[in-house]
Design goal:
Elements (H helix, E strand, L loop, with lengths): L1 H20 L3 E10 L3 H8 L5 H4 L10 E5 L8 E5 L6 E9 L3 E8 L3 E12 L2 E11 L5 H32 L12 E5 L2 E11 L3 H18 L9 E8 L4 E10 L9 E5 L2 E10 L6 H14 L3 E8 L13 E8 L8 E2 L1
Antiparallel strand pairs: 1-7, 2-3, 3-4, 4-5, 5-6, 6-7, 8-13, 9-11, 9-12, 10-11, 10-14, 12-16, 13-15, 14-15
Helix pairs in contact: 1-4
């Protein structure tokens, strides 16, 4: 009996040593070149409603139960699945979207967490897409992974290759979208929004300081008064005078209908089906080209705008790389009689 116990202990010690030597992360990645823009490819990847079109696992269980939450193309968009033994059960969630990277958190229920990345690199008119995964291995599983690491790479790598091939077919079948100065401009509906903030006429060189001074104050008042906010800090631009180098603008944050933030001006932007949108990645000082693209588009279509809204999605305090800062730019277009922007 003691000999058996000694053997068991010895095997346990050996396995612990193997766990110490085993990998804490297994990396799998595959790449493919696609004749499409990075934005066109990202639009497929960041909308989980499109995932079944190119997922390498969809055909393994056609009866798989799928639940999709959140807004496509936004952080927090989530996909949950539950299927047969071939696909298992789990969730994936968008955690980061930048000019050259989409990141996801993947949770295989009962099998640990993994970080997934799609990395885009321009190749002239084509885009090289790398699909990569860092699979985090718990301590007690690392000994086994010493022997199965190659098998995991072959198995998952094969799925990635198949998925990239299907993604390539999907994106290359989509008609090429005309861009303006390199930007894709989308015609979108704008929902009614109420904002609170401060309006001022400023020189261009005073804008950054104006926003940096007022956004924290507005957020602090919202928190102190236990209100909600329904969007990121935003700038509303009523005029933009290149000759005088000044603008009439407001630093604002949106709140739900019915909530009031005393001590700040209220701004109401009514709902309209006539709005244009650009997802701009980059530093604020280089945003002029995106606005120029909007001007080109409107001149081509014979459109005019009423007001411009910039939503500052990224936090420069937490993301130091300015090329990854996301700003949603919206131009609210004029209808026959224009829409009334209410300031109270």
């Amino acid at each position: 009996m003691k000999k058996v116990l000694y053997v068991i202990v010895a095997l346990a010690v050996i396995y612990l040593v193997l766990c110490l030597a085993g990998p804490s992360v297994i990396k799998v990645q595959r790449s493919a070149s696609m004749n499409a823009s990075a934005d066109a490819i990202k639009s497929q990847i960041t909308d989980y409603n499109m995932f079944s079109k190119w997922s390498p696992w969809a055909e393994k269980d056609t009866a798989m139960k799928i639940t999709i939450e959140g807004v496509p193309g936004n952080i927090g968009h989530k996909y949950a699945w539950e299927g047969n033994k071939a696909v298992g059960k789990g969730t994936m969630e968008l955690t980061k979207i930048s000019a050259d990277t989409v990141a996801e958190k993947l949770d295989f229920s009962g099998k640990g967490m993994s970080d997934v990345f799609f990395i885009f690199k321009s190749e002239g008119t084509a885009t090289n897409v790398t699909w990569a995964m860092d699979m985090n291995i718990g301590f007690m599983g690392r000994g086994m992974m010493l022997f199965f690491k190659g098998k995991m790479d072959k198995m998952l790598g094969g799925d990635f290759e198949k998925g990239l091939t299907k993604l390539k077919q999907v994106v290359e079948a989509v008609p090429v979208v005309k861009t303006y100065r390199g930007y894709e401009i989308k015609e979108v509906a704008w929902p009614e929004r109420n904002y609170y903030g401060k309006k001022a006429t400023l020189g261009f060189d005073k804008l950054s300081a104006f926003f940096a001074d007022n956004f924290p104050k507005i957020f602090n008042d919202i928190i102190t008064k236990k209100l909600q906010h329904t969007g990121p800090p935003s700038g509303i631009f009523y005029t933009y005078d290149e000759q005088k180098k000044q603008t009439d603008c407001a630093a604002v944050i949106s709140v739900p209908e019915g909530q009031e933030l005393k001590g700040w001006e209220k701004f109401n932007i009514p709902a309209t089906d006539m709005a244009l949108h650009i997802a701009y990645y980059g530093g604020y000082a280089n945003m002029a080209n995106a606005h120029g693209a909007m001007t080109d588009y409107m001149q081509e279509k014979g459109l005019t705008h009423n007001v411009v809204i910039e939503e500052y999605i990224s936090d420069p305090m937490s993301e130091k790389d300015s090329t990854k800062w996301l700003t949603n730019i919206y131009y609210i277009l004029n209808s026959n009689g224009g829409i009334q922007i209410k300031v109270q």
